[in-house]
Design a protein that fits this description.
about 290 residues, alpha/beta, Rossmann fold, 9 helices, about 15% strand, globular
């Protein structure tokens, strides 16, 4: 992101819209990847709070089973959602060949998946020329191919039922690239290309796609971001630390999905980068040259 956009402003912008056929979360089975922390954990709590009295069923996935168990216990304790309505389904997006079996387990347990929140992923903080190709490949494997593989495994069941919705947590750098994020930005750009095309193919089957582009959100995404040799950065970006809370971000995501938004930008002034890139690209390029990005 951009240091000049380091703001605590919590206004959000919704870009494009459509009309949903029915309330999207009614009696829904909702699957969240990356649910053990950050935005994914906040989504689990937001939906558990709403779903305790509305028969929502949640599937929570990440690599860390102990953290998933913590999130489940917290949701049960805080919101009164029944344990039988929360399925823990550990998975690793880097292991794409294992994902069809995870979909099979989800369908066997709850019969269907109505809303898929693609939130799992990994970020990057390194200059392109300092980044091993293996690191670029790993970011792409997790953030793009893992998400696509899970989508392709789940899509046939949605097509058969003619009901479903994919919510893809991208990033503002899925709309423009910034220094130190070349591989991450590339993976997020790829998600937009894939899911925009998919939306155009499946809308007649009452299956929707919402692309979510957060800016600065206070999570550990920068702490866990990979550097040029694949090791974790291990520190919080200054702008990240001053960003929107994960809880507020989750609430805005859920509202955008309910409103039938096709694409939504969530954050403070950093959202302006989307419009600067579109309308004054030369100016935006100069801003990026001097941007503080960690």
């Amino acid at each position: 992101m951009l240091a000049m956009t380091n703001s605590t402003t919590t206004t959000s912008n919704h870009h494009y819209s459509t009309t949903t056929m029915a309330p999207i979360f009614d009696n829904a089975v909702i699957w969240i990847t990356g649910a053990s922390s950050g935005i994914g954990e906040a989504l689990a709590h937001t939906l558990a709070q709403r779903g305790a009295n509305k028969n929502y069923k949640l599937i929570l996935s990440s690599r860390r089973i102990a953290e998933l168990e913590r999130v489940k216990a917290d949701c049960m304790r805080r919101w009164g959602i029944l344990g039988e309505n929360i399925l823990l389904l550990p998975l690793d997006l880097e292991q794409a060949d294992t994902l069809p079996s995870k979909v099979k387990s989800a369908l066997q347990n709850f019969g269907a998946v109505d809303v898929m929140f693609h939130n799992g992923g990994i970020s990057q903080r390194s200059l392109a020329h300092d980044t091993a190709l293996a690191v670029d490949r790993r970011v792409m494997e997790i953030d793009f191919f893992g998400t696509v593989a899970l989508t392709k495994a789940l899509l046939p069941s949605m097509l058969q039922r003619e009901r479903g919705h994919f919510v893809v947590i991208s990033s503002l750098v899925g709309k423009f690239g910034t220094p130190m994020r070349s591989g991450y930005s590339a993976a997020k750009h790829a998600l937009h290309g894939f899911f925009d095309a998919l939306r155009a193919e499946i809308w007649r089957k009452n299956i929707g796609v919402t692309m979510v582009c957060p800016g600065f959100v206070r999570t550990n995404v920068s702490v866990n971001a990979v550097t040029g040799n694949g090791s974790a950065q291990g520190s919080m970006d200054e702008a990240q630390a001053k960003g929107m809370s994960a809880e507020e971000c989750a609430r805005r995501i859920v509202r955008a999905v309910e409103a039938g938004k096709l694409e939504v930008y969530i954050g403070g002034r950093e959202r302006l980068g989307v419009y600067l890139k579109r309308f004054v690209p030369n100016l935006f390029a100069r801003i990026l040259q001097n941007a503080k990005v960690t």
